[in-house]
Every structure is written in C-alpha cells, then in structure tokens.
Amino acid sequence: MSTPTPNSLTPKQLAAEKARLVADARAEGFDVVRVAAPDAIPLAPERLAAFLAEGHHGSMAWMAETAERRADPRVLWADVRSVVMLGMNYGPDQDPRALSGEPERGNISVYARNRDYHDIIKGKLKLLAGRLASRTGAEVKVFVDTAPVMEKPLAAAAGLGWQGKHTNLVSREFGSWLFLGSIFTALDLPVDAPERDHCGKCRACLDACPTNAFPAPYRIDARRCISYLTIENSGPIPREFRAAMGNRIYGCDDCLAACPWNKFARAASEMKLKPRPELERPALADLAALDDAGFRAFFAGSPVKRIGRDRFVRNVLVAIGNSAEPALLPAVRTLLEDPAPVVRGAAVWALSRLAPDEFERVRMAAQAAESDEAVKEEWRALGPAIG
Fold first, then answer.
1. Quick check: 135 and 11 in contact, CB under 8 A?
2. N or C: which end of the chain has fewer CB within 10 A?
3. Handedness of CA 114, 296, 241, 382 (dihedral sign)
4. Contact indicator for 22, 35 with CB cutoff of 8 Å
5. Which are the catalytic amino acids?
6. H or E stretch including 184?
7. pLDDT tens-place string over residues 255-275
8. Same domain (yes/no): 212, 234
9. Is residue 333 part of a domain?
10. DSSP state for residue 6 in the 8-state scheme
11. Residue 38: which domain range?
12. How do strand 248-250 and strand 107-108 relate by DSSP bridges?
C-alpha cells in the first residue's frame, strides 16, 4: 500500500491522524497536545515590536535579529499549515520559594534541576514528527525554545492555556509548570479552540517579583528579571538587583510559584522530570569552590552548564553576599583572586556585605592592585576613589 500524500487526506482521515498523534504524544510523556493554525497569533508582531522598541529584551540581540520569523510561523516556514503545540508538566512537589529560608543554599530554578529539557523534549518531538511524516507523507519540522518560535502565544491559541500577567503560559490543569515544544506540519489538521484568560483581577505573580520586572500586567522588562540577570546577562549583576536576588543562583520561579492556578497542578511523574537531588538545595560553599572542570562535571547534562563556570560563580557570590553567613568568608577571600574579572567583582561585593570592616581595611590596596576597570569600580563603589 502506497503512502498517502498530504493533499489526498480527507477531513475524516486528518482528524484520525490528529487523534493518533495525540495518543502517540501522550505515550511519549506529553501531558497536553493541541493544534493551532499558523495565522492564529495576528497580534504577535505588534506586541513583539513594542517589546523590542522599549529595549525590554536587554542584551538578547537574537530576539531582534529573528523578529520577522518569530512573529509569524509562515515566515519561518512557508509551507506550514498546522502548528501542533505540546506541553510536558514539570511541576515541583513543593513551593520552590521555601528555599529562600535557607540562605546558605543555592536556589536553582525548578526547570533546570533535571536534564536539559531541550534534549528531553526535542528527541521526543523528532520521534513523533517522524512517525507522522512516515504515515502521511507530510513534511514536518520540530522546535523547542531556542528556535524563533513564539511558543507561548501559539500554545494559548491552541488552547493549552493562556498567557498570564507574568507573560508565561498558565494552564487550568498544570498551573505555570509546562515545558513547550512544537511540530510544524504541512497537514491541515483540525484546530482546537483557544483558552480564554482566567487571571481576572489577580496580580499575585506581579506582586511576587523580587525586582519589579513587570512594568504592567502582561508585560515584562527582561532587564529587571532575575532569570535574565543570572542567565542571559554576561556582565556584573547590576547593584540595584543584587540584594533582591537572595539565594537565587540560576533563574527565578517566584512569579510562576505565586500563581493560584498551581493548586490544581500536580508534581511531575517519577518517570519523566524528577529533579536531581544534588541540584535541589546545593550548598553555596561547595558551588563557590567549583573550577571550570568541576563545574562542567557537576552540571553535566544540565541547562546550567550553558552559562559557564564564571557567570555561575558570579551568581553564587551574590547569593553568598546575601547569606549573612560568616562561614562563607573563606570562599569569598579565595575568589577575590580569581582569574575572571566578573568573579572577582562579585567577590568584592560579597566581602563588603559579609565583612564590611575587612572590606575597608583592604579596599585601597586591593583597588590599586586591580587591573580590571569594572572590578576597580566595585572597590570604589562603597568608598572614595584613590589616587
């Protein structure tokens, strides 16, 4: 029997293919699968343009460079006829904000406590898309996060949930805890109805943000977001946000965790996305001691690995500065001599917080000996310049 061509499939056959795809996806561990038309997000280009014009993307230049493709799936791939949006629950079994009460521990965002979800999801999407293409003869493409696809608006258009006031997707079944992926196909699959906004007057997510990163509901200024500051930002953490970071050393879950719809969510199943125990509440002292090789080994297979040791230890030092734990001073003193300026600068700030008297005693000599201007500025920030 010959493989059918996409154009030869009847509406009944297309509906059957969609049902088979949904069943297949659930068997692969996806919790929700729905379909949107490629023209289902007509407001996206205007909203993206406004976001970029306001500079709210910060240093993420790739967002501007890919804006045209990002705003319209048909620009990314002209032959797309349907966008299959898939969600996988990664809900934690407890509120991640509870870890803020353990200042000597590092708080890594829930999504990064397991294997890199890009790898987990993309492999599954390729399997599903390959089977669909084999059955129907239709071309397919798969995308996960790093591609120029506006996954959250498309997921809302497909009915997986709605974009909450924190700009993330919210589901009535899974709260704010869904990984998203997409399959673009040349098939005209039956589309699903979009989900309506259920946020109402609630502003719990906005009020939970430690750095006031939301200039208005449904708008985010990434430059103020702890996830951006700890992951995308390659330079020093701006001083105005350091105290607010607390012990958040990779990402931030506060706006997600504050969403009341999470009460209907359930923890991810044992077989899918349970966190690695060593990443749930790691000791800051141990993390500060990581050299490049140790960092790569400890975070093997984790998305944390992508930011590199220096940027990560910078984050750890900010958390140490917020810890009020004198026992962490030896780590700070060691890192004052680190080869990486971004690490030395963060160590200066941590020293000023944990041992202000010691900071004043060594400041002038250390400032004079420092070769990097950004680190010199850290020494100057809490005292008069010398020379």
1. no
2. N
3. positive
4. no
5. 145
6. strand 178-185
7. 999 999 998 876 655 445 677
8. yes
9. yes
10. G
11. 1-268
12. parallel
pLDDT in tens, 52-63: 677 766 666 656
Q: Give CA–CA dist 70/50, Å, rounded.
A: 14
Cα–Cα distance, 172 to 195 (Å, whole number): 10
Residue 79 is encoded by which pair of tokens?
A: 């032959």
- φ, ψ (nearest 5 deg) of residue 278: -70, -10
Q: How many domains does the chain have?
A: 2
179 and 291 in a single domain? The answer is no
User: Do residues 121 and 115 touch, judged by C-beta distance below 8 A?
Assistant: no
Please identify, among 213, 238, 268, the residue that sits at the C-terminal boundary of a domain: 268
Q: Give residue 43's pLDDT band: very low, low, confident or very high (50, 70, 90).
A: confident
Question: Tokens 């996305």 map to which residue?
Answer: 273
Residues 297 and 186 in one domain: no
CA distance 9 to 82: 14
Strands (DSSP E) found in 41-131 = 82-89, 107-108
Taking each helix axis as running N to C, give the angle between helix 341-354 and helix 356-369, from 0 to 180 degrees, rounded to the nearest 10: 150
CA distance 231 to 249: 9
The structure's pTM equals: 0.91
User: Both 250 and 297 in a single domain?
Assistant: no
What six digits make up the tokens of 136? 């129907």
